[in-house]
Amino acid sequence: MENQNTVGNFFKGLNIIHFALCAGLIMVAGVMRFLVKQNAEPADESNKLVFEIIGIAIGAINVIVARLMFFTTTKPALSVSTLGEKLNIFRTAHIIQMALLEGAGIINAVFYFLTKNDLHFFIAVGIILMMIWRRPSRPMAALVLFSNMEDKQKVYDDSLTL
């Protein structure tokens, strides 16, 4: 049997990419937490406030920009005619969204390592939870890719060839 590119295989592949991005950030944050807890020397307090402001700002800005980029990147999909092109636009938008969130999470994990301030660790954990919550789903794909109800049903047909 040939390995056909179907809607079901598309969402399986996209979920694997999503899982890998989430797992990468979980591992970075976990390693940073382990290293900070193993190190008994006190952190440098001189730039703590600056790091707090930068960490919070990067986290908040990236969360907002990630969502805006997702919806602006998927907007052209409404005028595309083929399902394969629509799903590729969805994949691209999802990966961009996850990359922005992961970047903010990694920056806060590094700030946690540098300052030993738990605020940065919990910002990274919040971003991890947001990444997990924003997994690629068929209802979200149907919402952003199609304008009428009959076409939306295409993303639920696992055997439909792209």
Class based on secondary structure composition and strand pairing? mainly alpha
How far apart, in Å, are the first and last alpha carbons? 17 Å
- The radius of gyration is 19 Å
Strand content: under 5%
Helix content: over 70%
What oligomeric state do the depicted chains represent? single chain
Described by strand count, sense and barrel closure, the largest sheet is: none
Q: Which whole number gives the mean pLDDT?
A: 91
Please provide the count of β strands.
0
Total tally of structural domains: 1
User: How many H/I helical runs?
Assistant: 6
Write the element-wise H/E pattern from the N-terminal end onward: HHHHHH
Q: Could you walk me through the main structural features you see in this protein, from its secondary elements to its overall organization?
A:
There is one protein chain. The protein is mainly α and 162 residues long. The chain has one domain. 74% of the residues lie in helices and 0% in strands. The protein has six helices and no strands. It has helices at residues 7-38, 48-74, 83-115, 118-133, 138-145, 149-152.
